[in-house]
Amino acid sequence: MVQFKAYGQAIIKTHLKIIKVVDGDGIFVINIFNKLEEEIRFLGIDAPEIRRSKKLQQDERETHLPGQLLLSLGHKSKTFLNTIAPVGTSVTIQMEKSNSIDSYGRTLAYVFLTDGTCLNEIMISEGFAKPFSKYYCRALAEYQQLSFSAKSH
Length: 153
Known about the structure:
7 strands, two-stranded antiparallel ribbon, alpha+beta, single chain, 31% helix, 4 helices, 153 residues, CATH 2.40.50.90
């Protein structure tokens, strides 16, 4: 049985399979029963970009790191996510009721593997993403602690 954390009022969707890894904090899933596809943006985390964009320019200003390095880190992040949750992986998502869609129409969610492991947490604790506060996330304080621990190792 998957052990979900109680992040307030939640919407849970099961019977999903990953059909595409977009980057280090985004995937496409398909519902195995009704075949509906959905783009998922991992709630509470931000991985480096994998292509030149306004977001990359913003990240360059904020981190004082060159875009080429950030793009390289973005590709490493995507590769890592693709290794631990490749296409075909079964997942369950948990959304916060008050904050389930981003400004691009993507579903914001915690993504869980069948063993209950939260991919959002893995990406931060392994250093492939950072906590992201643009959209409210009940797990933000926990993600900040995970990020601090990842940087300490």
